[in-house]
Amino acid sequence: MNQANRRAGQTTRTLTELALLTAVVLVMASTPLGYLRVGPLTMSLLTVPVAIGAMLAGPEGGAWLGFVFGMTSFVNAVNGTGGLTAFAFQENPLACFLTCVATRVLCGLGCALLYRTAAKLLPERPKLACALGALSAPVLNTLLFMSCLLGFFYGMEQIQNLIDTFGVTNPLALAAAMVGLQGLIETVACTAVATAVTVPLRKLLQRS
After folding, report:
1. Whole-angstrom Cα distance, residue 1 to residue 10?
2. Are 39 and 178 in contact (CB under 8 A)?
3. From the CB of residue 45, how many other CB atoms can be counted at a distance below 10 Å?
4. Helical pair 47-79 and 126-153, crossing angle rounded to 10 deg
5. How far apart are CA 63 and CA 59, in angstroms?
6. Where does the sequence pass through the membrane (predicted)?
7. What integer pLDDT is reported at residue 88 of this predicted model?
8. Dihedrals phi, psi of 66, to nearest 5 degrees
9. pLDDT tens readout for residues 86-139
């Protein structure tokens, strides 16, 4: 009975955490912290709550928060405020959905799995494990999103215009030119904030 009550309590706590982090994602998505247009792409710090949720609630939580993140991106594509994804939606709605949503689900899931692996390999260094987990979220988000965007839409007029603008000759060089400084800012910010939040929370919640 005690074990059942403990499990029920853990489930309730996890659902509460996910509800709060879902609200954070939705609120951030309506502010520049969620989506800030920088050049041809949009800078986003929504990987922060995704990383926190992935490390606190595991793969299911990470995948769910990634889904919420992705849906806000897809909605922006549909209503025309999503930058390149808005053009991508007009070109191929299904491929746009996969680019906006599926990549973010995989981002949250991958972040949780990588964190668990780091935590098992570094049992005496929980802060480092959290930092590695936090780092994986923006890195996975960028790699997965850009791979789908250029894989599905490399021939799109707006992408071809960027190739001319940056003077590059292949998708890898274009991705590097498009991400640039904003990708570094996203990565540093997410790693720092998600680590700073997750480390004390896991200690408070007595999680490994």
Report:
1. 14
2. yes
3. 21
4. 20
5. 6
6. 41-57, 64-89, 95-116, 128-154
7. 94
8. -65, -40
9. 999 999 999 999 999 999 999 999 999 999 999 999 999 999 999 999 999 999
